[in-house]
């Protein structure tokens, strides 16, 4: 019989808190290495620039111990608890996890953004400490506690897919039909976790769990597949990358760094499948507690990061936001790099809803909120520390603001918007009709973007927390023109061009 292991409350809570801090600023080493390989082989200038920003941001965050992404995620914890473990606590395991989350997200030297809202159907009130976490517990033989901690961003989580296929339906066909429909809101390049079997909820859990495994596609390609499941992983990796979607959906050779698949027995009449992406800010860590104290996590060695240091292209166009005109916006071209300087306003989902409700009711916009000849940035920043004016402040997914785009463009004098990923047909038509523009900043480069912000202040809706409206004063903030005043979208043209090039020129989509 195994000896009983005692897990102390303080050790467990500290381990959860330390792990969440750790993954907020350290990419997994396997992700960095695979992304560096993708950078070296990338032929699309736009995608190569995006990957350079992500790699540069990753190194800066590791050095500065600041979040890789402003969206510091919803916490997922997977626990395999040995049945010989005894807990030195009167609280539930879930309560202990949530205490670790609370301590991590409120840590003064690196506060993490609180993104969780309670009452999801109605009030959607921010809990202010990012609790509660989503906790999965499994009892196992043994005398240790096996822990996977992850922080999942909303942009990638929102692109999760679930389908109940017929037994003879092709998983490959479903994936290749589904991935293009996911758009770029999940911030590729990243990973796809696929769960097959069980029931609907089991397939989704399999897909989430398998994303916690190390990225090993490079090693798999080098040694070759050992079984049919590995053959399927390689087939999906190659075929998804051959779609040409590329980094940030701009078109290129690498959309996924790896495809993970986990299966479970299922009913003879069923084939449940789930697919969950992990984004360019993938965050997870694995450790084990044996009763000897809290976990001590080892950061990736400095040589893990490649010698990549992003800088703007020589032909980047500088734009003075304080003197922005309609004519200048109309002169921008899809794919063009701009360096923005001057003042801009911010706003996300909750702020947009309030603004449009005010406009529709005939009310006045709040003092300090004047969009005439201005740009709005879709962002919810992390709180600043030390000498920062703002914490990491990368873009959020723009499609969530599509329904509000027309009234803001038509009734406020707004000239342009900044976010990430593509816009839907409704928003693109509003942009074309109003001869406005949509710009993208790179998702997964939040700390790098924040270095361009020289001043920040809340001007409206402070009760919304991270969703309040800020005024930013920026200098040389890098963005790409995604939709121009004619309604032409780089998220349509870029992948189309690279899909054609990959197939016509037979460009290899694997690197071994």
In short:
This protein is of the alpha/beta class and 512 residues long. It contains 15 helices and 19 strands. The strands form 5 sheets. Strands 14-15-16-17-19 form a 5-stranded mixed barrel. A 4-stranded mixed sheet has the order 6-2-7-12. A 4-stranded mixed sheet has the order 8-11-9-10.
Using the coordinates above, name the CATH class of the largest domain: Alpha Beta
In the sheet with the most strands, the strands line up as 14-15-16-17-19
Indicate the radius of gyration in whole angstroms: 23 Å
Number of helical segments with 4 or more residues: 15
CATH superfamily of the largest domain: Fe-S hydro-lyase, tartrate dehydratase beta-type, catalytic domain
What does this protein look like?
The chain contains 15 helices and 19 strands. It is α/β, with parallel strands linked by helices and 512 residues long. The protein has three domains: 1-153, no CATH class; 154-280, no CATH class; 317-495, Fe-S hydro-lyase, tartrate dehydratase beta-type, catalytic domain (fumarase, Alpha-Beta Barrel), CATH 3.20.130. Strands 14-15-16-17-19 form a five-stranded mixed β-barrel. A four-stranded mixed sheet has the order 6-2-7-12. The protein has a four-stranded mixed sheet with strand order 8-11-9-10. Helix 1 (9-25) crosses helix 4 (93-105). The N and C termini lie far apart (46 Å).
